[in-house]
Design a protein that fits this description.
alpha+beta; 5-stranded antiparallel beta sheet; two-stranded antiparallel ribbon
Length: 124
């Protein structure tokens, strides 16, 4: 979002998506809060038609994991197995991150970053 007008546009687009009960965009953080039972793919396509897109996150999961199963999770865009870790690029949505956390074996580590281009990982 580049201006206050974008905030209004994003909110208007999101509110028209089936299942959205509330949509609130924040220009300062460039984040969109959506409440309701929403299909992230449908929301992303609607925003895309308006020239916007949902943020991405890259998450590194350490441990022996089924990369093919992770790739099937809703909101996951790319999964790359790299030795004893798996790199996952996905929509920056709490429910997607929660699904990845649930896939972790007991005691396994998870590192994530909001901006995949920034190359900064934060432990979560």
């Amino acid at each position: 979002m580049h201006c206050a007008g974008c905030v209004q546009s994003v909110e208007t687009i999101a509110r028209k998506v089936a299942g959205v009960e509330r949509a609130e965009a924040n220009f300062g953080t460039h984040q969109l809060l959506v409440e309701g039972a929403v299909d992230l793919g449908v929301l992303e396509r609607a925003l895309g038609r308006g020239g916007y897109r949902l943020g991405r996150r890259r998450t590194v999961l350490a441990g022996t994991l089924d990369a093919a199963a992770l790739a099937e999770l809703p909101g996951v865009e790319e999964v790359v197995a790299d030795g004893d870790r798996v790199l996952v690029t996905h929509l920056d949505a709490p429910e997607v991150l929660a699904r990845l956390r649930a896939a972790l074996p007991s005691g396994a580590a998870l590192s994530t970053e909001r901006d995949p281009a920034a190359r900064r990982l934060v432990e979560e």
